[in-house]
Design goal:
Layout: H1 2-22, E1 28-32, H2 39-46, E2 57-61, H3 65-74, E3 79-83, H4 84-92, E4 98-106, E5 108-112, E6 127-131, H5 136-147, E7 157-161, H6 164-172, E8 178-182, H7 185-192, E9 206-210, H8 211-219, E10 228-232, H9 239-258, H10 260-270, H11 276-283, E11 287-292, H12 297-310
Parallel strand pairs: 1-2, 1-3, 6-7
Antiparallel strand pairs: 3-10, 4-10, 4-11, 5-8, 5-9
Length: 329
């Protein structure tokens, strides 16, 4: 009896292994921005972490939300690193996108040429560069201003630019004095102007207000704001591959956080607009923690509600459906 049971178990294990082996695909395509949410993907590719489920893994860079939406709608990728509100918009437009996890909980901050700006109120009257008009950084910024009795139109001169990289370059070239940026752009700008952490001569730029801290104060909560994560798209239907991706992404994120120097070198090698030192510096100023979308749902829905209050279009008009939150099979 025991021998028969042992044979059955062995057969089952071999059958499952064979099934898993059959799920190996020719190529996995993963898209993402230059920002930190994508950097663990570079580690996964470098280590061939998914070679048990894919013969090849390719990374595709998207530079702005329009490029991202086009990639997703055309069905060109399997997984995508994505702002959480953009994922909600696509879901509400009928795209079968499922949020796997939230890994970026804090990357937004202010940077400028004065060292005495300690709150958003201190920026009153300033001309500020803001990337991605009517998208997540802009909407969070405006809501924080309004909740503190400030008018984005009357109290500030907001100048919209295409991306954080454009804003960073304008600061470096002294075409602007203040900006809302996402890491690692803040740290890269400080490095490129030799403003880190203190310069022998007077620093050109200063790291300023942390928007997540302002969020915590304004909304009486903690400073973990669910800003970006990984999503799976319809052309990837294999639950085993999705599970393997999730597992390896989390491992790579843990490595990224604990090896800032090596992570900086890796990210700069993959994305020429970054610098190794800037990425290394940035890791200490970010809240990075991989949490499943299901477990993050309460915080996501609070975040979506805040965004919707400022601009319903920023999440597609309503909270995403239950099917938006990926459930492991």
């Amino acid at each position: 009896m025991k021998k028969t049971l042992s044979i059955l178990i062995t057969t089952l294990i071999l059958t499952l292994s064979a099934l898993h082996a059959q799920t190996k695909v020719d190529k996995l395509i993963i898209a993402g921005p230059f920002a930190s949410v994508s950097h663990p993907i570079f580690k996964m590719i470098e280590d061939n972490a998914l070679n048990d489920v894919a013969k090849e893994v390719e990374f595709k860079l998207w530079k702005n939300p329009d490029e991202l939406r086009a990639m997703v709608i055309k069905g060109e990728v399997d997984f995508v690193a994505i702002p959480t509100n953009t994922a909600a918009i696509l879901n509400n437009k009928g795209v079968d996108i499922k949020l796997l996890n939230v890994s970026v909980w804090g990357i937004l901050g202010m940077i400028g040429r004065e060292d005495n700006l300690n709150s958003l109120k201190d920026y009153k009257g300033k001309k500020i560069l803001v990337p991605f008009r009517a998208d997540m950084p802009d909407i969070v910024f405006k809501q924080l201003l309004k909740k503190q009795g400030l008018s984005p139109k009357k109290d500030f001169e907001l100048v919209y630019v295409a991306s954080p990289i454009d804003a960073m370059q304008m600061l470096i070239m002294r075409r602007a004095d203040y900006a809302l940026l996402a890491e690692p752009a803040i740290s890269v700008a400080l490095r490129k102007t030799k403003s880190f952490p203190i310069s022998i001569v007077a620093p050109d730029l200063y790291r300023s207000v942390n928007l997540q801290d302002e969020w915590a104060e304004v909304f009486k909560t903690d400073n973990a704001v669910p800003q970006a994560g990984m999503a799976v798209l319809p052309r990837m239907k294999d639950a085993h591959i999705i599970a393997r991706f999730n597992e390896e992404y989390d491992k790579a994120m843990q490595w990224y956080k604990s090896h800032p120097k090596e992570a900086g070198v890796m990210a700069a090698k993959e994305i020429g607009m970054l610098t190794a030192e800037g990425v290394e510096d940035s890791i200490a100023h970010q809240n990075l923690n991989t949490i499943s979308a299901l477990d993050a749902r309460e915080k996501l829905e609070f975040f979506y509600t805040v965004l919707k209050e400022e601009n319903p279009k920023s999440i597609g008009g309503k909270l995403p459906q239950d099917s938006f939150y990926y459930k492991a099979q």
